[in-house]
Write a structure and sequence with these properties.
The protein has helices spanning 44-63, 66-82, 84-95, 99-119, 156-169, 184-195, 210-219, 232-243, 267-279, 296-312, 331-347, 382-385, 401-409, 424-433, 488-506, and strands spanning 6-8, 10-13, 16-19, 24-29, 34-40, 127-132, 135-143, 146-150, 173-177, 203-205, 223-229, 248-252, 257-261, 289-295, 350-353, 372-375, 392-398, 413-414, 418-420, 440-441, 456-457, 460-461, 474-481. By secondary structure, it is of the alpha/beta class. The structure holds nicotinamide-adenine-dinucleotide.
């Protein structure tokens, strides 16, 4: 550790900073390749303290009316928004993304909180009259309890809020673990929510390694659910660990999203979408466009346009005005992707742009990599079969829609996908046949809070966003109200019980 580094005690538990007992983990600025802070890692005992705080806060929080929880969360989110200018440079410094992208990310995270604040006033439940003569039923929703939220480094705040918002509105309390390399924005985010009035213990953060703090959270006996976003191998490990104790899990995992560009598409718009969809956040997005399949008859024009855009993108430090693409997040991630590109080119394909770090000496210490385009590598090359988590795009020519869909589906992943065509019948056919949790038609990579999001196949299990997210943060119970002989007195009681049933059916 150098003298210029700031040291942080680690976790945020029960509304206050908590000094972790583990060793210090360095936080590196990816644009400089140097640590600027260190944060003590959480041990099993620190995780236990956080879960204990969340469990202690649970009864009072879950007893509040659902709209009251929404109101409190809304005020706290507003306080975060007032401090967004403080969070933006912090996120850029520890993650590497441009200041503009940090603003977009944190704004989206706050929007997601506010979306569920809105839903807190609109939740309704199911009620079935006359199940049998005089017998009615309703579905009661109850919170699960303490939720563990494990988040990666590529979008530390949005991926956190996708979990936090429905979990809290549904009456759960949360312990989050950010990636070991991006703890700072999350810690400050938690402090701001607390300053904004979120009661202590309702939201806690533990920092540290996945193998230590992460596993301690997953295996803690008082954690009822793990909401995980990250890689497929770690997701599978978590699912296995969570089996003990039959914990609930949602898994938002890796992707290799295909984009199909038909011969009748708006080719200029499609090429822009391919470039933005691949190189945004330096290619480090789960639902980035990771494979392009373009109809042969228009392929030359589209490829030329994507290559031009890739070569023109301004690569640089995220905190410098005018930068369009920052560095990759870690040296290890860059090495891994660089090896995928080399192995692919060894097996075939033409390198049309990039292919390595930029020449600029000012960028030599950071984890930069040029926007890269490879055309027509073999269909079994690493860039086709593995997730490429960085700024490198493979493009293939295909004969028709059938071939494009077949290729699109020939992947273990099934997260997102997109189709570019002016023909509605083609668009609908592709949307039906592509094996993925999202299909954008003449549009790309934007996730809406209104619609459920979640992968098929090795891309995960369960949904985030939409009202559907509540299904993953609640248990439901069917309640049957048996027949009663109605007298004046029992009618009164029945009316009162029906009133309370309908309010319970609404609340979670
Ligand atoms: P990762 O799986 O290595 O780590 C993610 C989180 O899990 C981190 O907080 C890490 O510390 C923790 N972790 C690691 N091992 C653990 C263990 N044994 N027990 C508990 N926690 C553990 O993922 P990453 O490489 O940091 O992130 C990139 C991956 O995330 C990519 O595959 C990307 O596609 C995926 N991702 C998916 C989505 C989605 O919504 N589907 C969104 C963003 C990223």
């Amino acid at each position: 550790m150098t003298a210029t580094q700031t040291t942080y005690p680690g976790s945020f538990i029960a509304g206050a900073q908590h000094g972790n007992a583990g060793d210090p983990l360095e936080v590196v600025n990816p644009a400089e390749g140097r640590a600027f802070a260190s944060v003590a890692a959480a041990t099993e005992a620190d995780v236990d303290a956080a879960v204990h705080a969340a469990a202690s806060a649970l009864p009072a929080w879950s007893d509040l009316a659902v709209s009251k929880r929404g109101e409190i969360l809304g005020r706290a989110a507003h306080h975060v928004e007032e401090h967004i200018d403080e969070l933006i440079p912090l996120l850029t410094r520890e993650q590497g993304k441009t200041l503009r992208d940090s603003r977009i990310e944190i704004t989206k995270a706050i929007d997601t909180l506010m979306h569920y604040v809105g839903l807190s006033k609109a939740l309704r439940g199911a009620h079935t009259p006359n199940l049998d003569p005089g017998v009615e039923g309703y579905v009661l929703r109850r919170p699960l309890g303490v939720v563990g939220a494990i988040v990666p480094w590529n979008f530390p705040t949005t991926l956190l809020c996708n979990k936090l918002a429905p979990a809290l509105v549904a009456g759960n309390t949360v312990v989050a673990k950010p990636a070991a390399t991006t703890p700072l924005t999350t810690l400050r985010f938690a402090e701001l929510l607390a300053e904004g009035g979120l009661p202590e213990g309702v939201f806690n953060v533990v920092t540290g390694r996945g193998s230590q703090a992460g596993e301690a959270l997953v295996t803690h006996k008082d954690v009822r659910k793990i909401a995980f976003t990250g890689s497929t191998p770690v997701g599978e490990q978590i699912m296995a660990l969570a089996a003990r104790g039959t914990k609930r899990v949602t898994l938002e995992l890796g992707g290799s999203d295909p984009m199909i560009i038909c011969d009748d598409a708006d080719l200029a718009a499609a090429a822009s979408a391919a470039s933005m969809g691949r190189f945004y956040n330096c290619g480090q997005a789960c639902l980035a466009i990771k494979r392009v399949y373009v109809f042969d008859s228009v392929a030359d024009e589209v490829i030329e346009s994507i290559v031009e855009k890739a070569k023109r993108l301004k690569v640089g430090r995220g905190d410098v005005k005018g930068t369009q693409m920052g560095p990759m997040h870690t040296a290890g991630g860059r090495e891994e992707m660089s090896a995928q590109v080399s192995r692919t080119l060894k097996s075939g394909g033409e390198l049309r742009a990039g292919g390595g770090p930029p020449d600029d000496p000012d960028l030599a210490d950071g984890f930069f990599y040029e926007p890269t385009v490879v055309v027509d590598p073999p269909h079994d090359a690493p860039m086709a079969t593995e997730e490429v988590f960085g700024p490198a795009l493979p493009i293939w020519r295909v004969g028709d829609l059938d071939e494009a869909i077949e290729r699109a589906n020939a992947s273990p992943f099934g997260l997102g996908s997109s189709v570019w065509t002016r023909d509605l019948a083609r668009a609908r056919e592709a949307a039906t046949r592509i094996e993925a949790g999202y299909t954008w038609i003449n549009s790309r990579t934007k996730v809406y809070d209104e619609l459920p999001f979640g992968g098929w196949k090795s891309s995960g299990y369960g949904k985030e966003h939409g009202e559907e997210a509540f299904d993953y943060y609640t248990e439901t119970k069917s309640v049957v109200l048996g027949a009663t002989v109605l007298t004046g007195a029992t009618t009164k009681r029945r009316r009162a019980s029906a009133r309370s049933a309908s309010s319970e059916a609404r609340s979670v």
